[in-house]
Amino acid sequence: MPTLTGLAYLVAMTLLFGLWIYGAVSLYFDLRHRFLPRLLGWLRERRNTDRRQLV
Hints:
Structural class: mainly alpha
Keywords: Membrane, Transmembrane, Transmembrane helix
InterPro entries: DUF8005
Number of strands: 0
Number of helices: 1
Low-confidence stretches: none
Order of helices and strands: H
Strand content: under 5%
Shape: rod-shaped
Helix content: over 70%
Mean pLDDT: 92
Distance between the termini: 77 Å
Transmembrane segments: 6-29
Radius of gyration: 23 Å
Pfam families: DUF8005
Largest sheet: none
């Protein structure tokens, strides 16, 4: 059976791992729903502006 120090270590590592996973998932959703649409819109607008200047 683990000692009190070992149990505290396991709880702390589990908590830190959970926070790390939460951060990774939040970053994924931010990239997918916030930054990627802005980037695609900017590229689409830039492409349309370039086509208008050629005509």
